[in-house]
What we know:
Blueprint: H1 16-33, H2 35-42
Amino acid sequence: MSKPTNTKPVVIQLTGEAGKRVILNSAKRVMNAHKKEIKALADK
């Protein structure tokens, strides 16, 4: 599958309650993805 050549990043305003939900869910995804590494650093 080829990537379209005319795509541009979309600006998202992370303000208010909706922005708070987006940021918290993003942080949870990062924490889950790196759970083992975070635990290993915490146990040092």
